[in-house]
Amino acid sequence: MTNPNQWAAVTTTGERLEEGPTMAAVRAAILAKPMYHGLDWAGVRRRFGLTFQRIAPAPPRHKAPMSEHRAARAAEKEARRGAVFAGAVEAAKVEGYQWITRESVAARCGVSVGTVSNAYGDMRALKRKVLQHACDVGISVIVAQGLADGHEIARNADPAIKQKALQSLDV
């Protein structure tokens, strides 16, 4: 397999004169040959029409199929991620999407606080995902909170969902 950073000096006819890891290494190897003795690099390039060309790396190798154990672990991870998201949606319905915390989400879905962090990173990303989900499926309580905040996602929601959310505020 060739190094993806491999370079070659190529003539106008396509012949490779020299290969190396850098252009400077290729240049030095060519100038070290006796037939080019006394010529500078510009002279060699002009006389032989040399250009540098990056040698294409080998095609990517196909990954081996996932083992049963790894597939099971990936499924468990995705299930935990789904549970965290469902807990975040429930917490947002009760507490308000702005006020959800890692601790409240973890308590609702029965996982550790670290699992919540591992699943979604920062809380801003999780809150945006919850609000986007609420706008997509029409959870008016959460959409109304987003509209009250003037959040961009809620403002760009479907007009029918926004109207339903605003009506839910009129008690």
Give the N-to-C terminal Cα separation: 70 Å
- Kindly report the average pLDDT value: 84
* Overall shape: elongated
Text of the CATH class of the largest domain: Mainly Alpha
Specify the biggest β-sheet.
Answer: 3 strands, antiparallel
Provide the succession of SSEs. EEHHEHHHHHHH
Name the CATH architecture of the largest domain.
Answer: Orthogonal Bundle
Strand content: 5-15%
* Rg of Cα set: 30 Å
Number of helices: 9
CATH topology type of the largest domain: Tetracycline Repressor, domain 2
Strand order of the largest sheet: 2-1-3
Helix content: 55-70%
Structural class: mainly alpha
User: How many domains, in number, for the residues?
Assistant: 2
Query: Any idea what the CATH superfamily of the largest domain is called?
Result: Tetracycline Repressor, domain 2
| Low-pLDDT regions | none
Number of extended strands: 3
Would you kindly provide a written description of the structure presented here, covering whatever features stand out?
The protein has two domains: 7-54, no CATH class; 68-169, Tetracycline Repressor, domain 2. It is built from nine helices and three strands; from the N terminus they run ββααβααααααα. It has helices at residues 23-31, 41-48, 68-95, 102-109, 113-120, 123-137, 140-149, 152-155, 159-169, and strands at residues 7-10, 16-20, 51-54. Strands 2-1-3 form a three-stranded antiparallel β-sheet, covered by helices on one side. The mean pLDDT is 84.
Compact overview of the structure:
The chain is mainly α. It has helices at 23-31, 41-48, 68-95, 102-109, 113-120, 123-137, 140-149, 152-155, 159-169, and strands at 7-10, 16-20, 51-54.
